[in-house]
Every structure is written in structure tokens, then in C-alpha cells.
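Structure ticket #2291
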Amino acid sequence: MLEPIGSVEEFYAHALAIEREAAKCYREFQDHFADRGEEVLAGLCGNLAHFEQDHLQLLVGRSKHLKLPEVPADRYRWLESGPPERVDHDLVYRMATPRQLLEIALKAERNARRFFEWVAGTTANGEIHALAEEMAREESEHVQWVTRALEYVRVDGVDWDELLANGGGPGLALGAERRYRRDPRP
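Resolution: structure written out below.
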């Protein structure tokens, strides 16, 4: 595992990287969902982006007098880590279902919570311990919000009730396949 976080500066560097990525991704998710008419999910992501941005600004203010070490740019990325050719950012948004995007957010929130819990449990510095516990509590709230949102998003990404109400569904596809087949057998 990692070496325990040994300084307040190191802690802030990691916390800022985590919060910056979360704010950025939630803004992207908000735009993505809004563009697709998913207003509830866009609202959730907008609220989370706002909370993450506020928290980021608080951390920036608290750490402005400190000389922070660099954290690798891809350390806390949600969508792409490693070389840019590994993951096409736009492709993720074109292909992912709302559920998959929320699962990405949930994984990132859980990882952040685990990181802060680990820091709180491994540091000997009382200030770092208190900061890490505070951050872990906030990440726990975000985990709960995203988990609740996942409860309302269909697993397959298809709103079957709406599709059936509009005369569609699996039977429609089967019927179309039979109409286009030369052999009239069912």
C-alpha cells in the first residue's frame, strides 16, 4: 500500500486533486444528462458539482499559504487514466448509459471515501486525522446520494413501461424481423 500521508501539505494536495476531478466530472455529467433530457440526474449532478466546487474552494483557501507537492495528473481521474489513447473521453459519453455513468461516480466517491478513511487510520498527525475524517464523512454523503440515484435508474437503460405504452417492445422487434425475412415461417 501507500506510505501514510506525512504532512498537511501532502494531504491537501491529494484532497484538492480528488475534489477538482469530482467537480469537473459532475459538471460534465450534468451537461450530458441535461442534453439527453435526464433532468433529475442532471439536477443531482449539478448539486454534487456545486458541493464539490464549494469544497474545492474551501480547501484552496485553507491551503493557499502552503507549498503543495504535485500529485500525478491521472491519479484520481474518473474516466481516463494513463495514456490518452487508452480511453476516448467522448466515446465514453456516447456509449455509456445513465446507470453506467452513475456507477463511475459511485466508484470514484467510494474510492475517495476509502482514501480519506485510510489517511485517518494511518496518520499520526492530529490535524491530518481530523481533516481526513471530515472529508470521509462528506464522501459518505455523496456515496449515499449516488446510491439512491442508482436505485431509480433502470439496469438495462430502457424504459420498458414507456416503450410498451407507445406500442413498442421486444415483440415489435420480432415482428419486424419476420417481415423482412424471405421465408414466411414464424
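Closing remark: DSSP finds seven helices and no strands in the chain.
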